Amino acid sequence: MGQCYGKTYVNGNGKGGVVEECPQSPLPSAGNGAASVQSVKTPARSSSTSPWPSPFPHGSASSPLPAGVAPSPARSSTPRRFFRRPFPPPSPAKHIKASLAKRLGPAKPKEGPIPEEGTEPEQLLDKSFGYGKNFGAKYELGKEVGRGHFGHTCSARGKKGELRDQPLAVKIISKAKMTTAIAIEDVRREVKILKALSGHANLVKFYDACEDANNVYIIMELCEGGELLDRILSRGGRYTEEDAKAIVVQILSVVAFCHLQGVVHRDLKPENFLFTSRSEDADMKLIDFGLSDFIRPDERLNDIVGSAYYVAPEVLHRSYYLEADIWSIGVITYILLCGSRPFWARTESGIFRAVLRADPNFDDLPWPTVSAEAKDFVKRLLNKDYRKRMTAVQALTHPWLRDGSHPIPLDILIYKLVKSYLHATPFKRAALKVLPL
């Protein structure tokens, strides 16, 4: 607060008094975001008339105080002093936590009363999925190979049929953790999406889904080459441009395939890309569709899901479409090329603020040695305005990737041709019909 000072005034009866004045100055903010107010000792005032008379003067019969109660010596108001309490904006982290609470259910109390016999839960959830119940007869479960928010993954081996002796991966989701209808629907949707997205070289193969009284089992292809994140770390934190191109093309290809099928992944990050083997030229597979969803062309999603470092600004604003996946690819590409994250903070709320307000750094090393095409590619993926962001198909045709060694997949070419035809004028369509194929 600004420094207060006093000056002498002369009232009507000729007696002097001390008046406290404070220069107008902004209040310094306290650590918690509210304005801090310092206590100031002021000289005692005489009981003479104040230059700022109270609506109930001392001794007035109209005073609201009960009879016999002396009024406070303090004036009823302080001139030219405005107390403002600026509060920080609400943190988007609260929305993430609220979204997780919806999916995972409320936190369990450490201690609680023991329910009496015969009492039933308030709401019974249907945890029957209609999947096969013969998991133990068809598959032999191995050791755990991974763990996530919604379940853990184990290696396995087929016992019979086409999958006999074939190494497999089994994602095990506990029914005990399905405490909400949303959590149950997430599992149903994940299996539906895996069934719908079959046939792409960079998509993990789905084989089967089973259940028993305790768990749901999702049987998939086993990828033994480790995560993309591990490869980045093993290379000293970054890739060369040529090696990064090969990775980015695979990511864009599978994401474009998902988008063509009307599926948004919503959790693209290096941990969700696995290599089929330890070989340097091994194919990479996209996994974990637990947060994915089907989306219509005229639809926008509003639930906040994903991982903090890779979440798009429009996701935090609760209105997003397929472009949210493209932002995540931009973050991954940035990491591949320089070895650091474009948005970083010590807390989740700080990360979200950086995503919403900060711009990626392209000045520090090694960016001065990175090609202009690569920097332009990343900037066009990390455009905060989703309407100006490249699509997966447009990114595949960017000059940085179009060096001839990475051909555009056939399904993407067909998509581009169909899209061009649909947006063409009737005259252009008629001209296209007479052109020889």
From TrEMBL:
At which positions is ATP bound?
A: K171
Q: Where in the cell is it found?
A: Membrane
Full protein name:
non-specific serine/threonine protein kinase
Q: Which UniProt keywords apply?
A: ATP-binding, Kinase, Lipoprotein, Myristate, Nucleotide-binding, Repeat, Serine/threonine-protein kinase, Transferase
Q: What class of enzyme is it?
A: transferase
Domain of life, per UniProt, equals Eukaryota
Q: Which reaction does it catalyse?
A: L-threonyl-[protein] + ATP = O-phospho-L-threonyl-[protein] + ADP + H(+); L-seryl-[protein] + ATP = O-phospho-L-seryl-[protein] + ADP + H(+)
**Entry's transmembrane regions:** none
